[in-house]
Specification:
9 strands; alpha+beta; two-stranded antiparallel ribbon; 7-stranded antiparallel beta sheet
């Protein structure tokens, strides 16, 4: 991911993150995918009414799908409102999908959604990552590093 893409992501009015992902997994490779949405789903996402808790991605018949993503019903929607937890198709190139499919056949690898954001053209995008699960001792090490970083930040604030 280049700096220009990161800056656009930071400027996005909507950023729905999967906070547990970095604690549970090592990120091997990241991709940005488009999401196929129906009528009121994009309106709910623009209001920030979505969640990536307990979501995962699956490749079915050469297509990438996100399962378990919760997008709340749009408040002003009528009978046209969408289902909250339906499977949604992700848009990637065929080569990227084949790369993910071959990697997930190995044990311990999975595809996890990291972030949902709105790009500069107003479309919903999702950052996904090919991940390898962390063991218990890896999680403890991550917590220790996070705690050390906090202590260093506190020490730097005291000296300033």
């Amino acid at each position: 991911m280049n700096k220009q893409q990161e800056e656009l992501r930071k400027k996005s009015p909507v950023q729905i993150k999967n906070r547990k992902a970095s604690f549970e997994y090592f990120f091997i490779e990241e991709f940005t995918a488009g999401i196929v949405l129906t009528g009121t789903e994009i309106k709910s996402i623009r209001l920030g009414k979505a969640s990536l808790v307990d979501t995962y991605c699956v490749i079915i018949n050469g297509e990438l799908w996100v399962k378990g993503m919760n997008i709340s019903p749009y408040f002003y929607g009528s009978y046209n409102n969408h289902e909250m937890k339906r499977d949604r198709k992700l848009l990637l190139t065929k080569r990227e999908i084949q790369k993910l499919a071959s990697a997930t056949k190995q044990t311990g690898y999975t595809i996890v959604p990291l972030l949902v954001f709105i790009d500069e053209k107003g479309r919903a995008k999702m950052d996904i990552a090919l991940c390898k699960g962390k063991k218990e001792f890896d999680k403890r090490q991550t917590l220790k590093e996070k705690e050390d970083r906090r202590e260093m930040d506190r020490a730097m604030k005291v000296y300033k």
